[in-house]
Amino acid sequence: MKKKSDKEILGNGIETVRDIDNWHISSNYKGSISFNVEPFNGNTEQVLDSCPTRALSTAKDDKPVTISVDHGKCIMCGYCSQIAPEFITIQSKPASPVKLKKQLSEYSNSQIQSEKSFEEIGNELREKIKKMFGRSLAIREVDAGSCNGCEIEITALNNPIYDIERFGIHFVASPRHADVLLVTGPASKNMESALLQTYEATPGPKIVISVGACACSGGIFGNTYATTGGIDKVVPVDVYIPGCPPRPEVLIQGLLLAVDRMITNGI
How far apart are CA 155 and CA 151, in angstroms? Predict the structure, then answer.
């Protein structure tokens, strides 16, 4: 029997990705939306109604009419762009994490994620963690009723491609060992008590990060009899990461923003 070569066993002959900086987001990826022209002269109601999460809105006293987007509600479906392609473009890069919820809906928040590579952000984060903690940054992930889309991206942080443990970040099983709570889902009524208990069990100082549109605003689930409409209705949030789901590159950018907030607040 002929012995198989290493290349045949491993598939492409590469066990891990050595240079993630050369990876690029596909041009087909649906990220944040941008407005091509202002004001909008088309059917405003038709554009607003195309959004399943009501992420698009207009100011009642605006003449002429201007449309803004709440990235905390946007699920990147692209329906608005299909209705008004000459007015709205879907970018291939996602919106950036923010410290304040109002920054998600400001018209000026059409900025996209940092142009820094994953490696650059990770190394910067590692240095700040080392300086501030003198040890690793411990994260407790909490699913407060999500569809598991965000969990897939969070899990990817630990795969051989992203491997965030090399930056001094690791996930822990107990909130009592955590510095950061990474929360997904709209905070369903069934998870409200569990989320609050997890928050209270986490020793201070602690940072809470809202991951994905559902955690930021309720997302596609909205604010109903079964959900709270976002985790900030249950626990205080320090960093909001928009997206449905947010990419691993944006997640690590949000972690860097969280550590920056710790440093700013003198924690």
Answer: 6
Contacts for 108 with CB less than 8 Å, ≥ 6 apart: none
d(CA 160, CA 15): 8
Length of the chain: 267
**Assigned token pair, 257:** 């923003």
Distances (CA, A) of 67 to 57, 85, 103, 222: 6, 14, 16, 21
Whole-number Å distance between alpha carbons of 213 and 103: 14
Instruction: Kindly report which listed range (10-24, 38-52, 195-209) carries the lowest average pLDDT score.
Output: 10-24
What are the extents of the domains in the chain?
A: 118-264
CATH topology for the 118-264 domain: Rossmann fold (3.40.50)
Exposure string over 105-117, b if 16+ CB within 10 A, otherwise e: beeebeeebbeee
Q: Where are the alpha helices (DSSP H) in 106-148?
A: 118-133
Reduce the DSSP state of residue 247 to 3 states and report it. coil
CA 56 – CA 195 distance, rounded (Å): 29
Interval 95-110: pLDDT, tens:
889 999 988 886 544 4
Q: Determine the 3-state secondary structure of 239 from DSSP.
A: strand
Radius of gyration for the alpha carbons in the chain, expressed in angstroms and rounded: 20
Q: Give dist(CA 75, CA 244) in Å, integer.
A: 5
Measured CA to CA, the distance from residue 80 to residue 124 in angstroms comes to 37
